[in-house]
Automatic annotation (TrEMBL):
InterPro entries, per the entry: IBR_dom, RNF31-like, RNF31_C, TRIAD_supradom, Znf_RING, Znf_RING/FYVE/PHD
Domain of life: Eukaryota
Domain named RING-type: residues: 62-294, 66-115
Gene that this sequence comes from: Rnf31_0
Pfam family, one: IBR
BP GO annotations: protein linear polyubiquitination
GO cellular component: LUBAC complex
GO MF term set: K48-linked polyubiquitin modification-dependent protein binding; K63-linked polyubiquitin modification-dependent protein binding; linear polyubiquitin binding; ubiquitin protein ligase activity; zinc ion binding
Keyword list, A-Z: Metal-binding, Repeat, Transferase, Ubl conjugation pathway, Zinc, Zinc-finger
SMART domains the record matches: IBR
Protein name (database record): RBR-type E3 ubiquitin transferase
Length: 425
């Protein structure tokens, strides 16, 4: 009797799906109806019925296991690595590679499971060509642009005639015979030997003598406006408590020049390699930190307008134009830790400033807004969607719970919010 009722239910659903034009024939309608009876979402069931010819293959299509979060997804939501057999859902891949592109060298963009391939001069171009195609539709536009810029810079820096500008983030090729290097972007002139901005006093004078003169006669002007605001916040090493009057910059991974401790420049949580943090699930993560949800690590993925909206709702004022005491230039003047000529150095940011970002580049304006949220203890989770909350958990390698039978969308959202609040603190 029960079997007859089930068959009747499937037949009725098949007819309904065909009448609504969702299935082109009886066989496809049967696969979709059977999957819906098995508690798959209708949208996924219809997708699988279009791609597969049997219920068995349709179920397999819809239950691909992600090697990172151990959840199951339809095959169209999965991605495969280039040089190995490991696979992960697109959200896990996006979270993994976004974090690496922000904070690490492009040579760390390896499989998060087996850390392959071993990048050599022979396969480097082919490998990054594959990554470029994979990232194009996977990553947010500004993250993809950052990847392209890092890739370009890595190729250029292998040329012995390539030089970085001393005033902006641009680089260029110059003749090895030149002592004065002219930046084609900002027109600044840099010394080819000491990499200082060229001044008249450098003419006919060795770099060491010029540096002595510069130290005596050109003290650094005091910072003002938001440049001063972010410098005053500074970065404090949680190990030796040395304070750096700098901003975090594009990379949150900060290395103390005094004690070599590696930590997040915003939330100061330590960075670990793999499972050194004590969590077995982090074995495949490489260099990582366990950031709280209000860290810039997560906030930089939130729309800027959404952050501004919640600040307004909490009656917290923020700047969109530079304060009067801030000297505005075409490039961001925030000081940050950078890798320059193979060494860590404190340098000006040098990125282009963005309209309505108070005279800062996009990266440092995000840091300014994130600092306002942190300073005023504002919980921004209310602006997150269910998908956003799932992304936060996936980015932190926290198991995402399934929506239980009978649970409303609102109840599931509240449960995810509670998990984020309790685990990412």
């Amino acid at each position: 009797m029960e079997l007859c009722r089930k068959r009747t239910s499937i037949d009725e659903r098949m007819i309904k799906l065909q009448n609504e034009g969702k299935c082109t024939n009886k066989d496809k309608a049967f696969i979709a109806a059977k999957l819906i009876e098995m508690q798959f979402e209708e949208e996924d069931a219809l997708l699988a019925s279009r791609q597969c010819n049997t219920v068995y293959h349709a179920v397999k299509f819809l239950t691909q296991l992600c090697d990172l979060c151990n959840c199951r997804f339809p095959i169209n939501l999965m991605s495969s690595m280039v040089y190995c057999t490991h696979r992960a859902c697109k959200e896990c891949f996006r979270a993994h590679f976004t974090s690496l592109i922000y904070d690490r060298s492009i040579f760390t963009l390896l499989c998060p499971i087996c850390h392959k391939p071993d990048i050599t001069d022979q396969n480097i171009q082919e490998y990054f060509n594959h990554l470029e195609m994979m990232f194009r539709n996977m990553l947010a536009g500004h993250v993809y642009d950052l990847f392209q810029r890092k890739l370009r810079d890595e190729v250029l820096t292998k040329d012995p005639n390539f030089h970085w500008c001393s005033q902006c983030s641009s680089g260029f090729i110059a003749s090895p015979r030149l002592r004065k290097l002219y930046c084609p972007d900002c027109s600044a002139i840099t010394c080819a030997s000491c990499h200082q901005t060229w001044e008249l006093e450098h003419e006919g004078v060795h770099c060491e003598r010029f540096q002595q003169w510069k130290d005596m006669h050109t003290p650094e002007p005091p910072p003002a406006g938001l440049v001063k605001y972010l410098a005053d916040r500074g970065v404090t090493c949680p190990s030796c408590e040395l304070v750096y009057p700098q901003a975090c910059g594009g990379s949150l991974l900060y290395k103390c020049s005094h004690c070599s401790f590696e930590f997040c420049g915003f939330c100061t949580r330590p960075y670990y390699r793999g499972k050194d943090c004590g969590n077995k699930s982090c074995e495949s993560r490489g260099m990582h930190a366990h950031h709280p949800y209000n860290c810039l690590f997560f906030l930089r993925d939130v729309e800027m307008s959404d952050i501004q909206m919640i600040l307004e709702e909490e009656s917290v004022s923020y700047l969109t134009i530079p304060p009067k005491d801030q000297i505005v230039k075409s490039r961001c003047q925030i000081r940050e830790q950078k890798h320059v000529h193979g060494c860590l150095s404190e340098e000006r940011c040098g990125r282009d400033i963005v309209p309505y970002c108070a005279g800062l580049c996009r990266t440092h304006y995000y840091e300014y807004l994130a600092e306002l949220l942190k300073k005023n203890k504002i919980n921004y989770l209310s602006i997150m969607t269910t998908q956003d909350l799932q992304f936060l958990l996936r980015k932190s390698r926290v198991l995402i719970p399934d929506k239980v039978k009978g649970e409303t969308n609102d109840e599931y959202y509240k449960r995810l919010t509670k998990i984020v609040s309790s685990t990412l603190t």
